[in-house]
Amino acid sequence: xxxNWQTVVxxxxxxxxxxxxxxxEIAMRKALDVAEKGGDEQLVTVSLxxxxxxxxxxxxxxxxxxxYRRSLKIRQRLLPPEHEDIVTSLNNLAAVYFFLGKHxxxxxxxxxxxxxxxxxxxxxxxxxxTGLNNLGLLCVAQKKYKEAxxxxxxxxxxxxxxxxxxxxxxxxxxxxxxxxxxxxxxxNDARVVYQRALSILETVWGPDNPELANLLTNLVTSLEETKxxxxxxxxxxxxxxxxxxxxxxxxxxxxxxxxxxxxxxSRQGKYAEAERLFKRIIAMKERSVGHQHxxxxxxxxxxxxxxxTQSHYAQAEQSFSEALAIYEKTLVKGxxxxxxxxxxxxxxxxxxxxxxxxxxxxxxxxxxxESAAxxxxxxxLACLSQIASCQLHQGKTKEAEVLFQKVLxxxxxxxxxxxxxxxxxxxxxxxxxxxxxxxxxxxAFYQRAMDVSVRALGPDHPELVPTLEAYADLLSRTYxxxxxxxxxxxxxxxxxxxxxxxxxxx
Length: 506
Prior knowledge:
The chain has 506 residues and is an all-alpha fold. The chain has a domain of 105 residues: Alpha Horseshoe (Serine Threonine Protein Phosphatase 5, Tetratricopeptide repeat), CATH 1.25.40.10.
């Protein structure tokens, strides 16, 4: 029976190596049947593991879980608790739980493995570090960040002590720690750890090893977030070159790397380089999917944003408009990309004072939002507020006042009277009344807006600035210069705070 079982297992293993998973599954099922009929429980556990591995390789984790659990249960009944076959079963099942997202079930298995490694191999054995590392990954998945950090640090120290500071496993432990810091947005901590990991792994593997790509990409992210752009740029170039060699120049990962490099150039103010790369991506996309494709529209939007940053408004308008036309031609009505493209144009026109051009785009968005979410939804009211703002800047004060009053009533009903959005609407209404020379009524709205902002956000919040400046203008118009200067000084003090960012009211 054993020779027959081995023959079938060999057939399954050969099919598995060739990627013929259906044939491998048939053979491994047959082997399991042979083992079960023969009554050899050790062969049954091996057969269960073999079949489970076929399912695992195909990401059929739920099927693999059932088999690995059966195998572990038999081994726990037959073998001592520290037996190597039980260790194998615990590792297999923990891995399945990780990929199934059953992290709470995988965690106790990893803890049991660590205890076995420490008892059998000693507390400073590299396998203990592997167990600590795996447990750390499960803790990260459950957002147990403090425990995960401690585990990764223990694993790195242990590997450095048992394997050496220049061993790749030491570098991998540091990389996992960096990933944890990156997820927590602790970018400077991540940068330091990634740089140390890169130094180790480059020495061992060489600088051109494709296994370094993810580490380099994550290091670049940490460098960008800490504004070390000059350090990030050559690493981006390395990632791009490596991906072009290994994947080919038109692979999506290559395009994504070019896009990231272009955005980095833009953040550095290297606009010509950024434009060249965005145009390169557009040309690549046009060759692979044709001009009329959403992927081309996405890159046209990137190019438009770059043009707008440089105040190249005619080119920005053309690219934004072309992107919208492509989305409308290739996507279903109301698609999120179409909605975003309409908003891009509306924002573009409004930011450049072209309110008559912006208004119809906001009107389109209003209809979409009303249809999708209802007339009182915050996004619908935001569109209505933008339309009113456009009308106000075009001198349509009566129409704007009606809309702002509608927005105010709806927001007070849904948000209460002390929400920052209420303050913005009150300021807009005050601006209308001021434009109509209704200064007494306008002043009451400004004061109410300031009270709401201070209660909701505090006295030094940037969203208070537009109200203070508009109220200062009213005070100047009514010949109260001392009060006006006080309001201007308050607004200036807020704007000069390091964390302040100017916010437009709408």
